[in-house]
Design brief:
The chain is an alpha/beta fold. It has 13 helices and eleven strands. 38% of the residues lie in helices and 14% in strands. Helix 2 runs parallel beside helix 3, helix 3 packs parallel to helix 4 and helix 7 runs antiparallel to helix 8. The protein is globular. The chain binds iron/sulfur cluster (SF4) (2 copies).
């Protein structure tokens, strides 16, 4: 039978968590050569099928734990400070507790995003023991409909269990946009989250490539209500969310591929869940040169981006290091690129992105490590200017 943690234990845990988060911020401010947050996918399969989601399937197998350990160890070697386990549905992975334990064994903050369906007191207790520190559940509506089954009606019992048994921080994210039929539900969900002692945030659903889809006036009104309800969370979300809600582009520097990494189930690094394929480089070959190059690389999709975890992670560096388009970055920092021989003669600077996209993996791997010895594969796609 699961044990309820005492309030003293919870207070001590919360204090410890905040101290570690403070350390993470200091480390991030001192150096830009490490990822602040990486999202990893141990399993693409999900037990639900939300209509707006492009991040799941219903067939794929769990990534073996040894492979997940290798990826976590590499992220630790790069100096990553937070790893968030996402999916698909991570609770379907048979070795989830060991994966969380491996993250914590490196002193990295461990978080998870789940739909919450599989939570029971014993499972929550196991997550406590494994060392989970942050958990987020997205709830889309008050009663289930054809767009989403992540409803308060179904999940309220799970939230009560979390309120009783969890030693980790819980955030409830409600979403608006993207076909959610009753945007006003977000306010009910936010209130319930606060009643149970959790934090609450609101997410704005993006289109199929993570870009802005302006909110209707009714949805904008809900956003303003949520903002008034929980000022402390919204000050964290700052101007980004505000502009997105109003349908306005943001002027910011996306540090994806550098401070924020998205690692898919195949172990490839992508900018984010909505820009999969770029860079598309195997994590185990990702180096500090890649981190430095991507830190300075301007992202064409930034103005209309709605990926709030990338916003939050990049915010730390908003005041420094302006970004460049590809040609000027090549000129300014040639050491961050790979030099390869062209079939027509001469040498060219390319990034691993150009090498890996649409390229035979073996050829790309050879090129990315060799200097002058490798022919540029005919299929290599240069980075967008
Ligand atoms: S629960 Fe999450 S991963 Fe699963 S289909 Fe819904 S949004 Fe996608
Ligand atoms: S701006 Fe960054 S986080 Fe947003 S869609 Fe583009 S690469 Fe992804």
């Amino acid at each position: 039978m699961a044990q309820k943690p005492s309030s003293l234990r919870r207070t001590v845990k919360a204090f410890h968590r905040r101290a570690r988060e403070f350390k993470m911020i200091v480390k991030g401010l001192i150096s830009t050569d490490h990822p602040v947050q990486a999202q990893i996918i141990p399993m693409r399969r999900c037990n639900l099928a939300c209509a707006y989601c492009n991040e799941y399937d219903d067939v794929s197998k769990a990534v073996p734990k040894e492979e997940m350990f290798r990826r976590i160890d590499h992220l630790a070697g790069l100096g990553t400070t937070i790893i968030v386990i996402s999916g698909g549905e991570p609770l379907l992975h048979p070795d989830l507790d060991e994966i969380i334990g491996r993250i914590r064994s490196h002193g990295i903050i461990a978080g998870m995003i789940t739909n919450g369906y599989l939570l029971v007191p014993e499972r929550i207790e196991r997550l406590n023991r494994a060392g989970l520190e942050h958990l987020q559940i997205s709830i889309d509506n008050v009663t289930p409909d054809e767009t989403s089954k992540k409803s308060l009606k179904v999940l309220d019992k799970k939230l009560q269990m979390l309120a009783e048994y969890a030693e980790f921080h819980v955030n409830i994210n409600s979403v608006i946009g993207g076909g959610i039929q009753t945007p006003e539900d977000a306010v009910v969900i936010g209130r319930r989250a606060r009643e149970l002692g959790f934090t609450s945030t609101v997410g704005i659903i993006h289109n199929h490539v993570g870009q802005l889809k302006p909110l209707a006036p009714r949805e904008q009104a809900v956003y303003q209500q949520m903002k008034a309800m929980n000022r402390s969370s919204y000050s964290r979300l700052n101007k980004f969310q505000e502009n997105i809600a109003m349908g306005k582009p943001n002027n910011w520097r996306c540090r994806s591929g550098s401070r924020y990494l998205y690692i898919c189930e195949d172990g490839l690094v992508h900018y984010c869940s909505q820009q999969r394929g770029i860079p598309g480089v195997p994590l185990l070959e990702y180096t500090v040169d890649d981190i430095r190059r991507e830190f300075l690389m301007e992202k064409h999709c930034a103005p209309n981006c709605t990926i709030s975890c990338a916003h939050q992670t990049s915010y730390m560096d908003y005041w420094r290091a302006p970004q460049h388009k590809l040609p000027s970055l090549k000129k300014a920092r040639p050491e961050l690129f790979v030099q390869i021989a062209q079939p027509a003669g001469g040498l060219e600077l390319v990034s691993k992105i150009g090498l890996y996209q649409g390229t035979d993996l073996e050829v790309a791997e050879k090129c990315s490590t060799g200097v002058k010895t490798c022919q540029a594969p005919a299929s290599a796609v240069p980075l967008r200017d």
